[in-house]
């Protein structure tokens, strides 16, 4: 990083790329004051900012590695910026300041990616969006009927930028990355031609900069910064994790599926804790212990499954329902987040209310890790679980550590991941027992072994369907989350939106080329098609699990590479083709490792799929063996069962890939 | 107005009411810089502001009647504020400034009204909304199916604050009014408890303040400021203006309606210029001359109507279609608004394109007045017309006067009104020939004799139906627009939304108690019920015209009062009951003059209506003669044909009102 003084200011560059250019006429730092209204209803936040001041810090005084910034010469400095290694440490010198803006130099043809897990747009240029963990919305597109109905039913429709996992970090096509170290509400604005603007509702601790000669090296660097996940457990290579929530009947259904040829690595019963019927569908009973009524003799059942090479997985989240037994224990110990009056803050989850265990209280976090996850889950025999939610912390609560809930809100997913990871580590099972999360924030990479893409609608829609999972994998993958997967068939069935056999099959086809194949019955299992509800769907799924297992030697190599270098399993095409700018905007295809290119069919009623093959190599079509030169747009037949996939002609796994034709 | 210095600033009050309180810690003036993107599509504007600076002007230096404001002591002044009579004249001292904010002191229980013609909310406290003339939207409520469909079909749904006629003027329950003299995009923010905030995308010319001991006196003062309209023409008291656009057949249909007992003052044929079929419905041919094919022998027909005491009215707007003959004449004379390349700027009106006559060019304005309105309309025999549109000036055009189109946009409705008014005056027919407009802005009061409420949907919806017309009449009326009326039955029929007999009847009932009864066939006449399409509807309408005529002595008195004092015909309840705060939020009832209280039934399937009767008098129910004490909520029977209406027990028109029972 290099700081140069200029006639009326300074310039900052990293590895030859100019990042900041400050002059009195065009300052790059701004501070100010504002207030806000942030209201939460069922994980959706109505956020409104009211700005009182935005002051360009026009005057810079440079003293060694520190820049003192003020509104004008002779005015008191309001912000100190100190170069510390590859970061700009920021210090507010004015206690009234609670708003911060930074303008970063941009090129007109620059692309930017990242922002956490983004579902709608991979290349974020041209957009301005907030970073605030929340429900992602149902429909997420104001032009669709489902979004309209979800909005009308309770402002639940969402928009393109809503995500369970935001992160104020981006990668630029100019081969640098920028991370804002803050948990405050922030906004990335990539709409302007000449600059990007970062807005933070607080003075951030620092701005970190990363540069590298290649995208691969840049991603490795970010992964080292944010933390790496352990390799996949060996048992996953046995096949898919089958999600059933049918009580004891789940075991019989699993047996039927296996008899139909489905290769299985795990049985995931989120209803292991019992259920609660609601208008949204059957919900779970949030009191985190095995429900012996719904699953009689479960420990014995788990042991029998294990003997067959199949693990049992469950479900947990950071809330405790106030009609469960754990609620009283936690409340007596003072472990819950409090409201303004000092009472346990109850959160409405839709027909039931919960306390939030206060993870800023080390005793409460340790209690959750040990008493719930350790004893009731791991010791009980679980090898994994969905660690759900994490997005619902309101801003009007009081926390044990004294941190402002506005700053704690985005931290919650990472704290929640840590609670889970420490429980797994306490039993020495890191890398062998797993959990998967939808929420996230900066640092979740270090604790959470797998992301899952949250709750898609059970359809092919552009902003809430199958295709959004690819964007989510690519954006989060660039920021150091190597493992991503999704609910096969999607989750949310509302307003008459129902799964079709075609959707189930297309989703299975994609999932076979992701690190984890996992099915889900969805929010309304009885109304919706299940994998075992249609022989053709089941047969197709069985073959996809065989494909997944066939590819396991390759996947194992990718997993070891991820642990060593931090490269995600699913990668944007540009990661290995950075000189081919035509790849920069692609978000409906991905590389599965370096050597496989996967182009899922993500629209209904398609028997062909068009895609662009990156230049620099020839590509072999998996199902025909036909070779295509890179650097061209092609169209291939894509009937059900033949998801468009290609391997590099020079791959060392060529024989394995060629073998797919026989699976 | 009184300016006091305080330890670190100043305080400004008017008639004892403190309006501004400035200190270094809490300044009330702010300036800054920003840019914007304002894109127009068919009268709907996508407006996006991007703020670079908002500087509190913390330091005030007072020199006689001038306040010099700067960011801090020792910094150069950026704004000069000079007290001139009842205004604060503003002068920017910094050419980079293009944003302005003012904080006005507020009381927590204060109510505010005005903002031009507002359709959804009369009391604007708690809201923040822009002032920019535009299409008001179809549905105007994101929770309704129609709004969703209009948005999906082209972002045409709108929101509560969209209006053809904005005006940066408000009246406070603290008995003062504030007007911002600017035509720039501005925002009124009434959300805060302690202050109101005014935002302007320019430094306004001045802030005008008005105070009075009573609301009546305040409204009189505003009317004197903005201009008054002539009294209603005598011919209007003959009955309703019947809107038909059925070519020559219109005359036969009028005869049928008259035979059914309908009292008629005018026949309004907007299709007098010929029609153009489009997907929206039959549109008119925008080339402003009588169409002899559609209306053979029209001059003769008009003369015959006049002999029967019936006037003929037409239609005009400020655009000329590029497939008409006037277009070439105007283009050759250089009368059109130009695009960036200096060519005639063509505006898309949906399947056809038009030039906009440049009213900042005095020759073009005079040409439109004389050649089109004077010769082709007034001299032809028209006694009135709808002077439609005025909201469509884009901001990327060049104007003859050199004014920035961003500043001209909101001025356009007033310029358009002036063109019409001058044409009427040129023939000595002011107050006898009339026109009615939906668009408006500051100063339209001086030129436009009647407002009409624009294009409601043909339904009872909360934000786009019958009830919105009341809010529009009350808000615009307070700002000096004495005459307001609406399309009986509404206008916009889209997405299967069709007029019902009940809607037609409820709308007729309300219109009988407004200064002008005028029907409209709507945008899709053939799909929708017309007044003469159902004998029950026609009979009901005939009776309502008789009620209107019966009330004409009272209406004439109100009209003379309006000319003399500026009081609107339709008034909020609080205007004559200012000590009864329960009236301050009422927007679904109105006073018709001082003596009648009208509570239209504005929802479907109602046979009762609840309302609040203001205190201070007894109220006599028009249809039963029953007396009710003021100061209470009551419910009365409201079957079709008996719109809830009450008169003051002490009215000098008591006999006239009592006579309504026999009509």
TrEMBL record, chains A, B:
CDD domains listed in its UniProt record: GH31_glucosidase_YihQ, GH31_N
Q: Which GO terms describe its biological process?
A: carbohydrate metabolic process
Could you cite one Gene Ontology molecular function of this protein? carbohydrate binding
Residue ranges occupied by any Glycoside hydrolase family 31 TIM barrel domain in the UniProt entry: 254-557
Q: Which UniProt keywords apply?
A: Glycosidase, Hydrolase
InterPro entries on file: Gal_mutarotase_sf_dom, GH, Glyco_hydro_31_C, Glyco_hydro_31_TIM, Glyco_hydro_b, Sulfoquinovosidase_GH31, YihQ_TIM-like
The question of whether Hydrolase is a record keyword is answered with yes
Q: Which domain of life is it from?
A: Bacteria
Stretches of the chain forming a coiled coil according to its record: none
Task: Tell me its family.
Answer: Belongs to the glycosyl hydrolase 31 family.
User: Matching NCBIfam families, A to Z?
Assistant: PRK10426.1 (NF007746)
What is the name listed in the Swiss-Prot or TrEMBL entry for this protein? Alpha-glucosidase
According to its UniProt entry, this protein's organism is: Bradyrhizobium zhengyangense
Q: What is the lineage of its organism?
A: Bacteria, Pseudomonadati, Pseudomonadota, Alphaproteobacteria, Hyphomicrobiales
